[in-house]
Amino acid sequence: MTSVGHSLVGASIGLVCLPGFKKIQNRLVFLVGFIAVASLPDWPIPGWGHYRLDISHSVIVNGGIMLGLVLGMRGLAGPTLQTYRLAVVGMLITWLSHFLLDTLYVDSSMALFRPLSDIEVSLPVPWLKTMPHVPPPFDRQILSIFWYEALTFMPFLILAAIWRVRSRSVVPGSGDGSNT
Ligand SMILES: [Zn+2]
To answer: Most buried among 69, 90, 135, 166, by the most CB within 10 A?
Structure first.
């Protein structure tokens, strides 16, 4: 999956989990954080990302990191973790969504369970294709791939936005605490 699909899914989940921050700036930072986490396994860090797919795209390795982070946060900032538990759960789901989306390429198969298993997972969607090269250049083929991903995942963002607006209007005067 390109960053288009990951970002749209990350923003959608972020929108659903967005705490009732009063400042728009805080909301934007929160959503950008979700978009970043949606692509976390692809981050171009040495020993990570596409340098080492067996590590960066292993649900086992990532699950261990997630567990360590949650336990660490629980020890260091338990009350904050409790207050923002929906956001934390959403963040973990966003992180995990990366692996599902990467299996959706028509020509992909991901060994997600290394080092425990080399079994490959593939859930091909006919119109989602891998990029022939990393852009730039943004040629017609790359733009077509972006376009199909946007069409596929944009509805999730629209649904999340509708849900967000409706949930805020259904409980008038419930305050910011209801969504934290
Ligand atoms: Zn990936």
So the answer is: 90
71 alpha carbon – ligand 1 mean position (Å):
25
CA 151 to chain centre: 17
Distance 98 CA to ligand 1 centre (A): 6
Tell me the CA–centroid distance for residue 24 and ligand 1, in Å.
Answer: 30
Contact partners, residue 57, CB within 8 Å, separation at least 6? 41, 98, 99, 102, 110, 111, 112
Is the full-model pTM beyond 0.85?
Answer: yes
Convert the pLDDT of each residue in 5-37 to its tens digit.
Answer: 999 999 999 999 998 888 999 999 999 999 999
In terms of Cα–Cα distance, which of 35, 46, 39 is closest to 12? 35
The answer to whether 164 touches 31, Cβ cutoff 8 Å, is no
